[in-house]
Specification:
Blueprint lengths: L5 H26 L4 H9 L11 E5 L3 H13 L4 E6 L4 E2 L4 H5 L9 E2 L1 H8 L2 E4 L2 E5 L4 E4 L2 E4 L2 E4 L3 E3 L9 H10 L7 H13 L3 E7 L9 H15 L4 E7 L8 H11 L4 E4 L4 E5 L4 E4 L3 E3 L2 E3 L4 E3 L2 H4 L27 E3 L12 H19 L11 E9 L2 E13 L4 E14 H19 L1
Parallel strand pairs: 1-2, 1-9, 2-5, 9-19, 11-12, 11-17, 12-13
Antiparallel strand pairs: 3-4, 6-7, 7-8, 10-18, 14-15, 15-16, 20-21, 21-22
Amino acid sequence: MAKLTRRDFGKLTAAGVAGVGVTGIAETAAGASASLPSLTSIVTRAVDLPAAQGHRVVVVGGGWSGLTIAKYLKIHGPDLDVVLVERRALFVSHPISGLWLAGMVNLEAITFSYLDAAAHHNYAYLNASLIDLDREAKKIYTDQGWLSYDDLVVCPGVDYDYASFGVDDPAHEQLLKTRYPAGFVSASEHVTLYNKVKNFKGGVFVLTAPPGIYRCSATPYERACLMAAVFKRENIKGKIVLMESRDQPAVMAEGFLAAFSELYSDVIEYMPSSTISSVDPETRTLSTDFDDVIFDDAAIYPRIRGARLLEQLALADPKSAQKEAAIDPITYNAVGDAHVYAAGDCRPMPFSKSGGTASSEGVYLARLIAARARGESVPWESPHTLCYSMVNTAPAEAIMVDGKYRFDKASGQWAHFENTAINERDEAKGRKAFEWAEEHFRDMFG
């Protein structure tokens, strides 16, 4: 008996279920591998949640975007039945993780419970992984069973694209992920990076900032500053080499360059205009057209792409250089589907992929979905990018950027407006960085 492939499973979750029938699926499973009976139960069993009480909106992905959308759906549509589906059991924030890396906050300050968020904001939390989607039947399939929706919001975040700098050997990609993780997606990466810095004995520590729009624009430069502060504080005889293809930092360039030269000239070596052509994790070598950089340790950040889940669910734009979602840029609707939305860092608009941006975007999208459920509409609102970047630890000093976006119909392009960068570091903005984080954590978790 041939194995049941994912393509076959996709057929089962749609018209294939009706055509084959439950008995036919069970017979197929009985003659195939031992793992297939559990597949059968997923197809035929509903998740353990009460029946929907009204219009049900399912939000998949519990990052800054998904958490904000779930909360504000209940604020703007109190009668909505909202379910947040998230595969993680615990939330650890990427924004502000640099402060933990530098010993300015403890891990508890960036770690939160999804149960608390659901309880405070009166929505349901389902700890499950999304496997498939039947858009005709308006059902999602998870490892805990299926769930029907009236509206679906997918916020799967991003994945790394190691092939973007010449890594096409699966063994090398695995080595990079485990030995030199970028520290921009999972909590495990953050913990590994924290331990790397804590236990670094000296030498060259490489950081990279990828091309394109990535998560989050300021963080590679902020991370370099905070790691350099740790090196100086702990008397670590090491050098941080920050490499990127741009000719200057992607955001707040003046402020970061001033910090590099005025605070960390003996620790940070900034290498702009350095396009990485290959990485060899075995010899610990990054190559550009002009240099080979040999490192003792590293956090290597490749170009990002929309989460692979988008392609599995047929929601990715095949024309997108970063494999992001194919959506209407104003309503966030998947192309051709008024009941499926994609939001957060997987969206294709050139907005900052930052926590604050995702949060403000989520408030707008929740308002839009709640209004549509009532047969109403709301005007588009620009996301708001407000970012404080810590560049010094003693004293705690930060720089900041504040801006919004608008669409130019004549050119068909997005542009910044009301954009302000304050590059002079000071303690007032350092305090604001902590206040900004506390405000957002309260908003998402109560």
